[in-house]
Amino acid sequence: MALLLWCVAAPPLTVRGAQQVVFSSTERAQWNEVDSGDVKRARARCRTGVIGMTVSPREEHQVNTQGDKSGSDEVNDPFSNYVSPLSTRYASEQMRRVFSDRNRFRIWRKLWIWLAESELELETQGVTASQVQALKDAPDVDIHLANQYERKLRHDVMAHVHAFGDQVPESAGIIHLGATSCFITDNSELIQFRDALDLLIPMLWRSVANLAVFAQSYASMPTLAYTHFQPAQPTTVGKRATLWLQDLLMDAFELEALRDKIRARGVKGTTGTQASFLSLFDGDHDKVKQLDDMVTRKMGFAKKWTVTGQTYTRKQDFWIICALAGVGQSAAKMANDIRLLQHKKEIEEPFESTQIGSSAMAYKRNPMRCERINSLARFLQTLVLNPAETASTQWLERTLDDSANRRLAMTEAFLTTDAILQLVLNVSSNLVVNDKVVAKHLQEELPFMATENIMMAATRRGGNRQLLHEEIRVHSMTAGARVKQGLDNNLLQLIEENENFSSVHADLEALCDPQQFVGRAPEQVAEFLASEVIPELTARGFSVERASGDVRI
């Protein structure tokens, strides 16, 4: 974007080594035409005057090579402009369509139609059935025409009002009747948020189903548990997965509740008082309330905010983004765990036959999906600060400093959550368990964990508990030192060679059976799935089977 420095009653700005370009007072009015593709033309037009802009030699080169590409192949080159990675790499096509300009402007059209239709039903003077029908029959949104109006009017909503009116001139006079811009922008965004939740919620439930299948399949497979990432009392592979599953289940409930909790702004007028509509209906309060209810129902919302300023309370945005960040939080916890387990080669995320792990180290199988989940989740969770600040800094009935922030934060929060859930679906549908590695790691630590059982069994058979405790302590230190030298754990061998434990020598294998150390983990998995997971999936029409997500790149 060309940077125009307007310095009234001051000499032109100069920079050493720069060429000076000045704008005449007449041509200053043309500054609105200057954008990223018009710099060279603007320079050619603007050569004289007292208001200046300087261009460095480097910028001069950029102007000459990039300003006017009417004869270049780069005019329509999609790679010559910045595009968010959320659109090109991460978010799904369905979610991108929800937040596309075309969908947004089509919702604007629907809102104008619903408003006019409701005003007709309430017998508003000056609104006719033929006018409303013409609005319904109008061609699709002419975005290019609206953009032309916006360059002139500097107001996006009024630009579309005029563009709509040009397409249906007989109805132009009733478009936006009694409304303010936030009737269009706030309500349309809430419709987009609701539609986006309708995409996210099924993905969450499919992820829950994937993990339910996984937990059920590995409910009884013993594995070393870790606290502080140090070996701890064993659990099972399936029980560990229920911890991920439980968090995502909480998120699914939260998003469902949120969807039902979202309220429309409704029809409130410029500062929320509905004064314009009260005037439109000649002081009839009942008709104003009916209009508000009718339009809310047409939008598909069960509730609207009874009181608003110019906008609905921005605290509602904070509710929404906190719930989305919760999804990122749960996904990141799962992804971190899988990354740690993949480092130990116990569990791996899916890896495609042609996938490359490293440009230099061809043997590598990096957990790129889980790493991407963590990366996106980190971004998503930081977005929570935006609506929190926006809600707390709105002045009185409204200030416009919410607008640009919300366009970025709210949209990107949904796109990011979508990208995360696509990855969660993909990873949870194809987790690889290397059971022999799991067993090996468990066996390396199990002798230490079995010592209490061995000591208790030997004591019950006549041994001296204090003597046995000291013998086990000494043997454990010896075996531990051996392990730290990279050798096998020989603790059981040392116990087997110690005559003080002769009464249990024949039972050592049984005393070290991994199943003896997992407690109720298998039963907990079965009970959790039967009581809290499968009934919820069934009630929503989801079967307990795996479904995969799309990893775009």
From TrEMBL:
Gene Ontology terms for molecular function: (S)-2-(5-amino-1-(5-phospho-D-ribosyl)imidazole-4-carboxamido) succinate lyase (fumarate-forming) activity; N6-(1,2-dicarboxyethyl)AMP AMP-lyase (fumarate-forming) activity
Coiled-coil region: none
GO biological process: 'de novo' AMP biosynthetic process; 'de novo' IMP biosynthetic process
Keyword Repeat in record: no
Key word Transit peptide present: no
Signal peptide (UniProt feature, chain positions): 1-17
PROSITE patterns: FUMARATE_LYASES
Listed Gene3D superfamilies: 1.10.275.60, Fumarase/aspartase (C-terminal domain) (1.10.40.30), Fumarase/aspartase (Central domain) (1.20.200.10)
Annotated family: Belongs to the lyase 1 family. Adenylosuccinate lyase subfamily.
Domain Adenylosuccinate lyase C-terminal: 446-529
GO CC annotation, single: cytosol
Reactions performed catalytically: (2S)-2-[5-amino-1-(5-phospho-beta-D-ribosyl)imidazole-4-carboxamido]succinate = 5-amino-1-(5-phospho-beta-D-ribosyl)imidazole-4-carboxamide + fumarate; N(6)-(1,2-dicarboxyethyl)-AMP = fumarate + AMP
Pathway where this protein functions: Purine metabolism; IMP biosynthesis via de novo pathway; 5-amino-1-(5-phospho-D-ribosyl)imidazole-4-carboxamide from 5-amino-1-(5-phospho-D-ribosyl)imidazole-4-carboxylate: step 2/2; Purine metabolism; AMP biosynthesis via de novo pathway; AMP from IMP: step 2/2
SMART domains reported in the protein's UniProt record: ADSL_C (SM00998)
InterPro entries associated with the record: AdenyloSucc_lyase_C, Fumarate_lyase_CS, Fumarate_lyase_fam, Fumarate_lyase_N, L-Aspartase-like, Pur_lyase
E.C. code: 4.3.2.2
Region of interest (Disordered), residue spans: 57-77
Protein name: Adenylosuccinate lyase
